[in-house]
Write a structure and sequence with these properties.
seven-stranded parallel sheet; alpha/beta
Length: 735
């Protein structure tokens, strides 16, 4: 029998006088921040056991702290001691790989134990054997796969995991949709392939693991499905947590494209309910009432009372009733059929049982979709209420309208890319119900950017803590109101019902990196205000970017907040492109790779290959991208990343804050932008030897009162305003 682990002795590996990590990691240096974080995580986990109540910890750990080891060692020690399962959730695949391939082996050496771990992936990552067989039997694999299916079948027959990421040949997106698992079309244990299903074999491996590594989207879906996806776990670490509230909230949004409603109406017609004509009348009437240009949206909080809407809703209710009766009938047939002796043509035969199972799943999926559509129609007709937001949108391009393989080109054009959306107003309520009304014992949130105030400031964690329901905003009169049409977790319980909300522990740890000597923050003077003189700002920004790129000779991320800004600046460089080519035989001063021209993945790949590349990018590149070393020596943040104020969810939340006497800009817009700026700044320094400059061109950082608040939370880089000083300091960095 293995001896229990002494927690206090184990944590000594992070102490200044311990050689343990140095013996495993070459070049390891003691970091007091890492030791402090490890002890804080261990303390939270221990309190959860001792007090028998859920505990939480918010940790901002600057780049270079080594937070992964700091939480993974005490987390896995607790998993061993309690014989329980623990989960780590991340946003990026690179961190998932680092956890499994780099950090876990170190922790296993320190613990002297092997930890069974698994990376959990969503259902659509796995080939479904039944769907693949059906596609091949019907020949419905699509013309683009002609001559390519044999290679795919050869790979699948030898695959152990059936994972989409493992296939190295060509398979079109449409083909993958046809042959990968769809939860709405899965027979589960009724499937004849259940015992050899890639997905269900993977889930069995998850049940046997002590450590599960998941991504934020999968974890959010698990909670949105009321805990039906992952096996039970008791302790959770959410790394890269700054983005988690938004991703979590998104899992609870109810939305339908018109083309999806059209397909659902056609399916209902095959069940004996004519919804197609009702939908066509609804669509035409609604588009006349609320005409939308492509790429636009409109929010409605009050109901829109019109006959076509009520007629469609009545038809949906009727369809729900009929589908419910058909479900009960199929269920009765299954119970009778399974009890009979198998017969080639009888109810107990394998084909009959399979057909009954397919029928049951299709009806069940239709029932759920009809219920979701009814909730959307209720919000449209009667209003979303105070705790939800309803809006209509129209997608910007015809390609986006092809949301269903079963829709013809004509029907897709008829649907015109309209969508209906219904979202809960505040994510914190969802968090409280999901995290603290179940058997969760401890939850750790950590990131390099969680705070929006200076160190040890009492309000530093308020924004993030409020988004995850752990730090309460002033009470709202409507907090006890239950609204129709929301997911169960959002509507069934008022905030605070059930288990009490745990008061979180907080810890703010700065980076051990020497920003003062290795990083420059450039704030150019005299730039036009982009909110007042956008065209002049773009012209001035383009000239400033030009001289910065000539100084750095590429090696730069130029990060924008909108497609319009990127296009405006990029046009300047396209018109002057020959200026950067250099003399004949010389290398160009820099070469621009634009996300708009090449897509984010291709633009990043080309940038990594070019020592003088300048990547023009959007939100994709503000966070989660690591380019260590001198390949990235300049980061330019063109504008402050304030969210578009008419974004439906943000606009509704800001209106609510104002109506209740709170500062909507300071409580919502400013902290969200601050976290994004910290993330953008963080692209520059990823290791102790990195060096370079961050330039923020937006003058509001210097002219507005809130600019001082943002500057106060940025890393302590050397701040310069005069370009000659900047040029001299930058060159000196690279001598």
């Amino acid at each position: 029998m293995e001896q229990p682990i002494d927690t206090s002795e184990l944590l000594q590996v992070f102490a200044a006088d311990s050689p343990a990590l140095g013996e495993i990691l070459s070049g390891y240096n003691y970091r007091p921040q890492q030791e402090a974080m490890a002890r804080a995580v261990a303390g939270t986990l221990a309190r959860a056991d001792q007090e028998g109540a859920p505990q939480s910890l918010l940790v901002e750990a600057g780049t270079g702290v080594g937070k992964t080891l700091a939480y993974l060692l005490p987390l896995l020690e607790r998993a061993i001691q309690d014989n329980t399962r623990v989960v780590v959730s991340t946003e990026t695949k690179s961190l998932q790989s680092q956890l499994l391939e780099k950090d876990l082996p170190i922790v296993q050496k320190l613990l002297g134990r092997r930890i069974k771990s698994e990376i959990c992936l969503g259902a659509s990552n796995y080939v479904c054997k039944r769907k693949l067989s059906k596609v091949m039997a019907e020949g419905s694999f699509g013309p683009e796969m002609a001559g390519r299916t044999d290679a795919f079948l050869d790979w699948e027959s030898g695959s152990q995991a059936g994972l989409r990421s493992e296939y190295r040949g060509y398979a079109s997106p449409a083909f993958w949709r046809k042959v990968t698992r769809d939860p709405d079309d899965c027979l589960g244990s009724r499937c004849p392939n259940y015992d050899i299903s890639y997905y269900f074999l993977a889930r069995e491996q998850w049940r046997q693991a002590q450590l599960l590594i998941v991504n934020h989207s999968l974890l959010a879906s698990h909670f949105a499905l009321e805990g039906r996806f992952l096996p039970e776990f008791s302790h959770l670490v959410i790394d890269e947590a700054h983005r988690f509230p938004e991703i979590f909230h998104g899992a609870f949004v109810n939305e339908f494209a018109f083309s999806e409603i059209q397909s659902l109406a056609q399916d209902a017609g095959r069940r004996g309910v004519d919804l197609s004509s009702l939908f066509e009348a609804f669509r035409d009437h609604l588009q006349n009432l609320i005409p939308l240009q492509r790429g636009t949206h409109v929010r409605r909080q009050t109901g829109l009372d019109f006959p076509g809407g009520h007629a469609l809703r009545s038809g949906v209710v009727r369809a729900e009733q009929i589908v419910k009766l058909q479900l009960e009938e199929v269920k009765a047939q299954q119970e009778l059929g399974f009890g009979e002796a198998p017969d080639a043509q009888g109810a107990g035969s394998e084909p009959a049982r399979l057909q009954q199972s397919v029928e049951f799943i299709e009806l069940q999926s239709m029932s759920q979709k009809l219920a979701r559509l009814r909730a959307l129609l209720d919000a449209l007709l009667h209003g979303a209420g105070r705790e939800a937001v309803f809006w209509l949108s129209r997608e910007s391009g015809p390609a986006a309208e092809a949301t269903s393989d079963r829709s013809s080109a004509a029907s897709r054009e008829a649907s015109s890319g309209y969508w209906l959306h219904l979202a809960p107003l505040y994510p914190g309520r969802l968090f409280r119900d999901a995290f603290f009304s179940r058997e969760m014992r401890a939850t750790i949130f950590t990131s390099a950017t969680l705070t929006t105030g200076p160190a040890n400031h009492p309000e530093a964690f308020r924004y993030f803590g409020g988004e995850v329901g752990l730090i309460e905003a002033p009470a709202r009169a409507s907090d006890t109101v239950s609204e129709p049409g929301l997911p169960a977790a959002a509507a069934d319980h008022p905030p605070g019902a059930g288990a009490p909300i745990p008061v979180p522990e907080t810890l703010q740890l700065d980076s051990p990196f020497d920003y003062a000597s290795r990083a420059i923050l450039y704030l150019p003077p005299g730039m036009p205000d982009p909110a007042r003189e956008e065209q002049r700002f773009h012209e001035a920004a383009a000239r400033e970017i030009e001289r910065l790129l000539l100084l750095s000779r590429g090696g730069a991320f130029v990060l924008f907040t909108s497609v319009r800004s990127l296009r405006a600046v990029q046009a300047y460089f396209q018109n002057a492109e020959r200026r950067y080519a250099g003399e004949e035989g010389d290398e160009a001063a820099f070469e621009i790779f634009s996300q708009l021209d090449q897509g984010p993945a291709a633009a990043l790949a080309r940038f990594r290959e070019h020592p003088r590349g300048a990547l023009f990018g959007l939100a994709t590149f503000w966070q989660g991208i690591d380019v260590p070393g001198d390949m990235l020596r300049l980061v330019i943040l063109v504008r402050l990343p304030f969210r578009v104020p008419d974004e439906p969810l943000l606009a509704a939340r800001m209106e609510r804050e104002k109506s209740e006497g709170r500062d909507a800009f300071g409580g919502l817009q400013l902290p969200a932008a601050t976290l994004s700026i910290k993330q953008g700044f963080g692209r520059l320094i990823r290791t102790a030897t990195d060096r370079g400059m961050v330039a923020i061109l937006d003058p509001r950082l210097q002219t507005k009162g809130y600019g001082k608040k943002i500057l106060a939370v940025l890393p302590p880089a050397r701040r310069l305003r005069a370009f000659p000083d900047v040029a001299a300091a930058f060159r000196k960095l690279f001598i």
